[in-house]
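[09:14] KT: can someone run the structure on this one? pasting the chain below
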Amino acid sequence: MKNLKQTFEKYGINLSKTQENQFDKYFSMLIETNKVLNLTAITEENEVLIKHFLDSAIPEKFIPKNSKVIDIGSGAGFPALPLKIVRDDLDITMVDSLNKRVNFLNEVINELNLQKTYAFHSRAEDFAKENREKFDVAVARAVASLDTLVEYLLPFVKVGGIAVIYKSTKLDEEIEIAKTAIKTLGGKIEKIEKFEIFEENLQRNILILKKITKTPPKYPRGKNQPKTNPIK
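[09:31] RB: done, structure tokens below
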């Protein structure tokens, strides 16, 4: 990919030749698979570089070393796979409800020879039954409104761990709506980091929630309730 190394360097991420090659392979596989499976509407090389790869990787600085990370609703692998490429110390689990996407993720894992990286076909509420509070960090990007998202993420996070949530603008409004859900699920707002990706004039917000108490066992609820009937 043209400008890959230089673009990442502008945002404080130095890529090795191996990492560059991994991003190149990932891009090729994404575009090829996208011809038969709808993974992304963004396919132009520079847009994938900025809007998927760089955008996913920038918040790596908030994730402690050797963290066990879960990505709920991974889709085509964002943000988990770019995070893994730039941070090989992370132990990554991806969960997605569409098996075809999970097959793609496993192909990328194998092709890029990523260690401690796993993809599972499951709904969040089902995966939570065996994996409650087992992760240091939960991440999600462009999945749902915040009041819904926290119910899918916080049950997986250990007390003392964090949820790293990627959002664009209007975060203040979403936080106001989600306050009760965050508290009910055992979280509190630790920080909001705002940054801009100048190449595409993208305004980004990273919300970091600290898990301070255990999540009540009934969450996350099934039957799509976090979306249709968020905690109020």
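[09:33] KT: thanks! The beta strands are 68-72, 91-96, 117-121, 135-141, 157-167, 187-197, 202-211.
[09:34] RB: yep, looked fine to me
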